[in-house]
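Postdoc handover notes: sequence design on the structure in folder B. Input tokens:
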């Protein structure tokens, strides 16, 4: 089999002069001259030497599993899928096709574009991709790149391998929830017992190799040598800079003034800092005219969409590329032209309960970033932190997302498909029992579970939505409160485009932003932003003038359409637009509280210090919150509902709206209020509940009657 597959490449040969005779076996068309140009580049990759060994192991592995271990930049993510496609082609498509998972949707999109180009095939036909709000595949698709969470949903729904014969789990060292769970489900299923003789290829960084080898029972391993070339010695700063963005910008400008050849890759913790850095470099790049054309500054983060391909394009003017990114490019997005790396050493990551934490990267990530600058030409790696910072504070490996993220969506999926009880599934690293219990408790509060711990009727409906359970609950509650149109918009915006990504750059931009703010808070402001975006004709210039992410807003528009179709398909009631009316304002608040009562905070002293009811953390409003950007700020709202909580040097609540405690008491489950951690706020709410119960004895007030209609959702 391996020699038969190798014949596919040997048949085409390296000689471009034969391109008129050689035919692409995947589509039957002659190879283009570009195919041969890219083939020469592919053969120079470090992984190419392991091609024959990989195909032999893929064919002969007793367990059907093959591990591939290699450093970033060796060509694993682009070449392994193509060899798997050749393997499946040699089987005559008799045993499924190839699916390649990626931990990030943007990586799946980018790799599909790149691999289709290398294989000389049409994207959307033989090579495709599946990411949220976009499925670019067809009946002839042989090789599909897919976000791992989408594949997890497919495996859960079919309880088998689905349409794939070879599954490539790429970037396993990223430890995403979906990738870890997919490995657990596949190991429990035992590939030999599944129909179609499927194969699984797990691609990882060498740091995770021993753990994966033990987990899969010592499968064959294909080792890939690192890239040959000069790997720079990292240069450390004596202290951590107070302004990371400014320090990174100055380092880039200094490289440009030295005229050091090669492109630059800058690592910052968050999308906000990426945006600020790009703006600053674009503004200051004009001062480098004496050193040649100004650098082309390119952001690289999940909100970039298809514009991400610009990082691979050659700059015609010969200008240097400066790519500004974060953890997304630790292992994905290998850029051969990079010769200089500037590393902040920090990352902003989401953890449980939609919180975020600013923390040091792992030693494995730091090494991966340094290796990005490996090449024949001399490069550099500047670390914006002392060496002791990495040695003392950085963990050896990235933390498994399964042990950090909110597990409620995962448990909802497992229970919906009745695959396995969460406590019985095998994991590379088992989540803490208290994390599983917290997720079950949260789902119980949301009325997603019945008395036996199985999904309730409401839980079944919640599991149908591609949303977090609390947001899906709020959307369902909008059916009761007659504000579905507004809640559809808000659900899409909270998922795809949660707000401004940077501070305003000038007074004019600040004024344009204030015009989009709504008196009721950030949630209503998001609806207002979306409606203004649609009225502008989805104009990109309009977004740029206000500091809005055009690609993310377009994604929100697509997601809103998908959510509307889903509600129509399961025959949920809809409502007419009424945004701005007094009744709609109250109804929208009720719908939000019905889903987000777990995320409420109270101003404890009247100065904007908010105590989270469920966690007893103290936080302030985000600088982008509409309550803080008003010209004459009044007293902060005493009770707020928030979307996310960032744990950093300035703990912040993001996407915040004022609520009334009476509404929280009426809509939240009584046992939720009783189970809150001890605090003055809990005592106040329980006392308020007793007073409201006493006042309603004997006669039901109109407001109580109205809220009582929502009991079907509680």
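Designed sequence:
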């Amino acid at each position: 089999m391996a020699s038969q597959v190798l014949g596919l490449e040997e048949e085409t040969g390296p000689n471009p002069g034969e391109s008129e005779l050689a035919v692409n076996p995947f589509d039957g068309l002659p190879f283009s001259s570009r195919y041969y140009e890219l083939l020469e580049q592919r053969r120079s990759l470090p992984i190419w030497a392991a091609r024959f060994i990989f195909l032999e192991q893929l064919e002969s592995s007793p367990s059907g599993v093959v591990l591939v271990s290699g450093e970033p930049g060796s060509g694993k993510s682009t070449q392994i899928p193509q060899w798997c496609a050749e393997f499946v082609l040699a089987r005559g498509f008799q045993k499924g096709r190839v699916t390649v998972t990626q931990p990030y949707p943007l990586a799946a999109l980018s790799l599909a574009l790149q691999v289709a180009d290398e294989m000389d095939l049409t994207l959307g036909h033989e090579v495709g991709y599946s990411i949220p709000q976009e499925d670019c595949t067809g009946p002839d698709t042989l090789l599909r790149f897919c976000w791992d969470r989408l594949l997890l949903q497919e495996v859960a729904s079919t309880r088998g391998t689905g349409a794939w014969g070879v599954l490539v789990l790429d970037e396993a060292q990223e430890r995403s929830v979906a990738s870890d769970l997919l490995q657990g489900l596949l190991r429990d299923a035992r590939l030999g017992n599944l129909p179609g003789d499927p194969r699984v290829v797990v691609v990882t960084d060498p740091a995770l190799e021993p753990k994966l080898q033990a987990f899969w029972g010592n499968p064959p391993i294909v080792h890939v040598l690192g890239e040959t070339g000069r790997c720079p010695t990292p240069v450390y700063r004596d202290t951590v800079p107070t302004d990371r963005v400014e320090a990174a910008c100055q380092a880039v400008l200094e490289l440009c003034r030295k005229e050091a050849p090669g492109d630059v890759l800058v690592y910052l913790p968050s999308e906000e800092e990426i945006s600020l850095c790009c703006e600053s470099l674009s503004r200051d790049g004009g001062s480098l005219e004496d050193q040649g054309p100004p650098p082309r500054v390119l952001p690289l983060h999940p909100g970039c969409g298809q514009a991400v391909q610009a990082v691979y394009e050659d700059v015609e003017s010969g200008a240097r590329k400066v790519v500004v990114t974060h953890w997304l490019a630790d292992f994905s997005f290998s850029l051969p032209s990079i010769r200089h790396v500037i590393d902040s050493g920090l990352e902003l990551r989401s953890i449980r309960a939609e919180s975020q934490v600013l923390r040091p990267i792992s030693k494995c990530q730091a090494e991966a970033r340094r290796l990005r600058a490996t090449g024949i030409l001399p490069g550099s790696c500047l670390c914006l932190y002392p060496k002791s910072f990495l040695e003392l504070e950085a963990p050896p490996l990235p933390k498994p997302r399964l042990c950090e993220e909110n597990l409620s969506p995962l448990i909802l999926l497992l229970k919906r498909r009745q695959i396995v009880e969460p406590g019985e599934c095998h994991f590379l690293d088992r989540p803490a029992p208290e994390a599983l219990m917290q997720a079950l408790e949260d789902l119980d509060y949301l009325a997603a579970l019945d008395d036996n711990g199985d999904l309730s009727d409401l839980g079944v409906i919640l599991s149908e939505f591609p949303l977090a359970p609390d947001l899906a609950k709020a959307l369902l509650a909008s059916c009761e409160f007659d504000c579905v149109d507004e809640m559809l918009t808000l659900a899409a915006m909270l998922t795809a485009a949660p707000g401004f990504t940077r501070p305003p750059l000038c007074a004019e931009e600040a004024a344009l932003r204030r015009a989009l703010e709504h008196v009721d808070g950030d949630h209503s402001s998001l609806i207002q932003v979306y409606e203004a975006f649609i009225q502008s004709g989805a104009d990109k210039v309009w977004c740029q003038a206000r500091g809005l992410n055009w690609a993310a807003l377009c994604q929100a528009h697509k997601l809103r359409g998908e959510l509307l179709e889903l509600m129509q398909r399961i025959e949920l009631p809809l409502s007419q637009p009424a945004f701005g009316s007094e009744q709609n304002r109250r109804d929208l608040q009720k719908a939000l509280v019905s889903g987000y009562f777990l995320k409420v905070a109270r101003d404890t002293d009247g100065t904007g210090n908010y105590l989270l009811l469920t966690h007893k953390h103290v936080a302030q409003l985000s600088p982008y919150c509409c309550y803080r950007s008003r010209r004459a700020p009044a007293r902060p709202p005493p009770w707020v509902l928030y979307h996310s909580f960032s744990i950093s040097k300035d703990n912040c609540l993001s996407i915040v709206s004022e609520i009334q405690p009476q509404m929280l008491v009426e809509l939240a489950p009584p046992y939720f209020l009783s189970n809150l951690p001890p605090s003055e706020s809990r005592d106040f709410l329980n006392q308020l509940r007793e007073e409201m119960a006493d006042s309603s004895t004997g006669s039901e007030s109109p407001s109580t009657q109205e809220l009582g209609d929502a009991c079907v959702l509680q």
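Context for whoever picks this up: The radius of gyration is 27 Å. Don't rerun without checking with the PI first.
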